[in-house]
């Protein structure tokens, strides 16, 4: 529908406003900074003002775009769209003054714009400083419009050419505060929308079933926005659920299928064998709620992944004492599958499908996720038909994924099965962690042709030795549904899957997969360095450092790169310097907020990692 109330700011000769005033069901409020006497003296302005008033539009003079609330009474402050074409401080004002003008303007817009409203800002070619400008100016020599808008809570949602020639009667004017036109060739219209507000997550307690008893535990702060989101629930239209359902439907064409994901416990006990302790989210049950040993042995025997206990860690990954009574958030659904196999609770030839969120501490990289949704498929067949059935399972997965990929992008994907032995040593965090869980036969990779092997999205493995039998062959396929959603829907940042912004799910009607169009274009990034001395004689846990950065920034850190590793002559003390890049994929992040995050990170690493800041 057309906007109900439109505000135009900084009109020179009012020709742009006059071109809009004929729109039905739209009330136009056209303003300029000058007095009526000054404005009417511009060529054609008097005629445009008369036309506006004759059509019922409001014309207001001496309006300061940085103090909009002062110019409109309470009942008439809310606008559905605000236009500001070619803002400028006047005369020979430089980029710094014009950034300050835009900053005041955006903060003022926040007070008068409707919740779902838009702010349109037209700038000459190169001024905005975004990749849409051709040629693009150096960042310091641009108006940095996206970063300036972010400081007031706005994100750039669209950008398109400003086609002055298509606007009937429009004539640009105001070059250096004079009644002269200026070049608008290559000009761009930047459309901003409100960002979701920063999420203020407080400490959260979660209740889960542990054996025959319900217990509560404190959720690690970095996972507060990822626990109990319900992406796989029946009423969800989230793409991870759609992919899971379509994969299940495709697999059911080749095998009978049974879903057994309803009551898988979130917590495991002890320490997962073979898994690095710093990759685990350790949990302490709420006081007085630890189950008895008898209840634990009865209720959790099937969920224990380990055969030995490793070192305990706190929320930040620091080492402690091993504790058989310690609990941790499940990093994989594999132990549940192994429990099913061990008990013989399956029908040979039937696919057992388990799915749910899993949690792993990991480094900050584009495809490393502290939480994602796993789909685990287990097939048990008689040894005589084992090889053919396993091949049928692999072919069915590949066929279904091919169909999904072509359905969303129209591009034929490259889906390959890579032998584990030939996959190389440079593994993604997902693949590396899966290798810790047990021997892998194949890695399942998806990539755009002709660039194999692509991104690892799953692994295929045989049952461990203690679960093998002479009569049966057991094979499992573990798939990362979040990575699949990114690749199939063209989502470049995994954090977008967890956004609270409703514009994400609006793009995915129930049961449909589509190519995602970002509603936050060219988000600004802010680079800070931090250097510190390490404690004498201690190794530095990078995973703990990255997890701490995730928690402090609320997942606003997109990159941590080691810049320098210095050892002081004589003393042997080691110093590390890291470059930390802050950037949001879905909400406004201003430079001041990023700087505050950096200061907080410095405090936290000194307190929790025992380093000495330089």
UniProtKB/TrEMBL annotation:
Principal cellular location given in the protein's record: mitochondrion
Residue span(s) of domain FDX-ACB: 521-614
Keyword Protein biosynthesis: yes
Subcellular localization: Mitochondrion matrix
Catalytic activities: tRNA(Phe) + L-phenylalanine + ATP = L-phenylalanyl-tRNA(Phe) + AMP + diphosphate + H(+)
Entry's EC annotation: 6.1.1.20
SUPFAM superfamilies: Anticodon-binding domain of PheRS (SSF54991)
Gene3D superfamilies: Bira Bifunctional Protein, Domain 2 (3.30.930.10), Ferrodoxin-fold anticodon-binding domain (3.30.70.380)
Identification of the protein by name: phenylalanine--tRNA ligase
Assigned GO CC terms: mitochondrial matrix
Molecular function GO labels: ATP binding; phenylalanine-tRNA ligase activity; rRNA (uridine-N3-)-methyltransferase activity
GO biological process, one term: rRNA base methylation
Keyword set, alphabetical order: Aminoacyl-tRNA synthetase, ATP-binding, Ligase, Mitochondrion, Nucleotide-binding, Protein biosynthesis, Transit peptide
A Pfam family assignment: FDX-ACB
InterPro entries from the UniProt entry: aa-tRNA-synth_II/BPL/LPL (IPR045864), BMT5-like (IPR019446), Fdx_antiC-bd (IPR005121), Fdx_antiC-bd_sf (IPR036690)
Family named by the database record: Belongs to the class-II aminoacyl-tRNA synthetase family.
């Amino acid at each position: 529908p057309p906007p109900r109330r439109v505000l135009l700011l900084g009109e020179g000769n009012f020709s742009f406003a006059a071109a809009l005033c004929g729109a039905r069901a739209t009330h136009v409020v056209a303003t300029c900074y000058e007095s009526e006497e000054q404005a009417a003296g511009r060529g054609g302005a008097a005629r445009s003002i008369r036309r506006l008033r004759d059509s019922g539009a409001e014309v207001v003079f001496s309006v300061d775009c940085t103090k909009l609330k002062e110019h409109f009474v309470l009942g008439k402050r809310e606008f559905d769209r605000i236009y500001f074409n070619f803002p400028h401080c006047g005369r020979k004002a430089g980029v710094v003054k014009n950034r300050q003008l835009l900053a005041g303007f955006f903060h003022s817009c926040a007070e008068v714009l409707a919740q779902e409203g838009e702010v349109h800002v037209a700038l000459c070619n190169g001024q905005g400083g975004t990749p849409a400008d051709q040629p693009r100016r150096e960042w310091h020599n641009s108006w940095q419009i996206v970063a300036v808008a972010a400081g007031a809570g706005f994100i750039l949602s669209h950008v398109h050419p400003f086609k002055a020639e298509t606007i009937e009667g429009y004539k640009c004017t105001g070059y250096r505060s004079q009644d002269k036109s200026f070049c608008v060739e290559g000009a761009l219209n930047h459309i901003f929308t409100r960002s979701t507000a920063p999420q203020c997550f407080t400490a959260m307690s979660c209740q889960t079933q542990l054996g025959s008893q319900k217990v509560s535990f404190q959720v690690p702060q970095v996972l507060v926005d990822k626990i109990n989101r319900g992406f796989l629930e029946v009423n969800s239209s989230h793409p991870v659920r759609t992919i899971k359902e379509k994969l299940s439907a495709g697999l059911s064409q080749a095998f009978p299928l049974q879903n057994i994901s309803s009551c898988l416990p979130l917590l495991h006990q002890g320490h997962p064998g073979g898994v690095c302790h710093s990759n685990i989210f350790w949990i302490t049950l709420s006081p007085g709620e630890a189950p008895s040993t008898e209840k634990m042995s009865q209720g959790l025997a099937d969920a224990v992944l380990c055969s030995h206990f490793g070192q305990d860690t706190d929320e930040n990954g620091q080492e402690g004492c091993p504790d058989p009574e310690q609990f941790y958030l499940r990093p994989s659904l594999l132990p549940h599958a192994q429990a099913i196999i061990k008990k013989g609770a399956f029908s040979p030839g039937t696919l057992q499908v388990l799915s749910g969120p899993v949690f792993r501490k990991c480094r900050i990289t584009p495809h490393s996720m502290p939480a994602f949704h796993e789909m685990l498929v287990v097939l048990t067949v008689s040894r005589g038909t084992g090889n053919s059935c396993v091949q049928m399972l692999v072919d069915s997965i590949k066929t279904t994924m091919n169909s999904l990929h072509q359905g969303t992008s129209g591009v034929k994907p490259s889906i390959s099965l890579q032998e584990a032995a030939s996959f190389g040593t440079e593994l993604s965090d997902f693949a590396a962690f899966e290798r810790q869980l047990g021997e892998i036969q194949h890695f399942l990779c998806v990539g755009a042709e002709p660039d194999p092997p692509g991104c690892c999205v799953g692994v295929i493995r045989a049952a461990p030795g203690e679960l093998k039998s002479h009569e049966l062959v057991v094979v499992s396929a573990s798939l990362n549904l979040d990575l699949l959603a990114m690749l199939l829907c063209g989502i470049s940042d995994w954090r977008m899957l967890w956004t609270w912004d409703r514009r994400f799910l609006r793009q995915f009607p129930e049961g449909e997969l589509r190519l995602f169009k970002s509603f936050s274009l060219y988000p600004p990034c802010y680079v800070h360095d931090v250097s510190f001395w390490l404690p004498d004689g201690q190794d530095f846990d990078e995973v703990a450092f990255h997890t701490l950065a995730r928690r402090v920034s609320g997942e606003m850190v997109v990159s941590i790169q080691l810049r320098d590793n210095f050892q002081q002559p004589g003393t042997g003390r080691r110093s590390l310097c890291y470059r930390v890049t802050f950037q949001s994929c879905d909400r406004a992040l201003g430079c001041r907020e990023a700087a505050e995050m950096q200061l907080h990170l410095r405090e936290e690493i000194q307190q929790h990692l025992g380093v000495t800041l330089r």
